[in-house]
Amino acid sequence: MRWTIQNLLYAGITDLENILKSDILVYYGPMDQWFKRIFKELVEDLASEKKYEKMTIILTTTGGSVEASEDFVEILRHHYDVVDFIIPNYAMSAGTIFAMSGDEIYMDYASVLWPIDPQIQWQDWKWVPALWYLDKINELIEKEKIEPLTQSEINMIVFQDVGKLKFIEESKNLTVTLLKKWLVNYKFKNWTTHLWSVNPHKIWKNVTPEEKEERAEMIARKLGNNQHWHTHGRSINRKKLWEELHLTTIDIWENEDLNLTLKKYYDTLLVYIGENNVFFQTRNSF
Questions:
Q1: How far are the Cα atoms of 50, 152, 247, 250 from residue 242, in angstroms, in the given order?
Q2: Residues 233-244: pLDDT tens digits?
Q3: Across the strands, what pairs with 28?
Q4: Helix H segments across 80-161?
């Protein structure tokens, strides 16, 4: 039975590569430095015998380390000039950052990205959203300007680890820096004309490098703004990406062959991995 499912998964990858005209790597699991070696070897294996000049990552992740995302992007871009992402289900936090490094992002109406709150490992080594700490401290600082803090609120500030808060702040800055760089260099590289703008005078005008940087900064800041999304767990679908961020994605449903083949592959994948939370696949290996 297991061998039959494996054959179906290999066949599915081959079919998807033929449809997309792209090498494909499936990444299902957290964004973690532990997987860097595996990821590097899989990419190198595909790149050594390229069927296509493009790489597509089929990504499902609960998030994790933004530093791991940066390393994975460096590995991909060393071997491929064009990298696309398909989000068949969800890509959270650091996964959103990873996906934003793509030339194109494929989603359907139910696919979701998440706000990009940097994650830190806490106590039992679980990943937790980092900006909650900064948001709470800033909230208390603003409150103190209006009325005295309670003793418990004062204690909350006094007993904070200043080093940890600085680390969180720099992690936030890193996410903004990476998103600006990747969006401008990859997602926006073919954006040359204003087809839509809040300023009607810009429509059909050429897009300047400064405008690309401004749009990238807006997206990065807004994705990391907890006050805007209210909760780190709020999902961001294709509709919200356009309405809130004016970020375009490709609708998987517009390509019937891709939609049906991806659904068949992904349903088989979920049966195969069961309760496991880490899975990698290319046309050559699991």
A1: 34, 42, 5, 11
A2: 578 999 999 998
A3: 60, 279
A4: 94-99, 131-144, 151-158
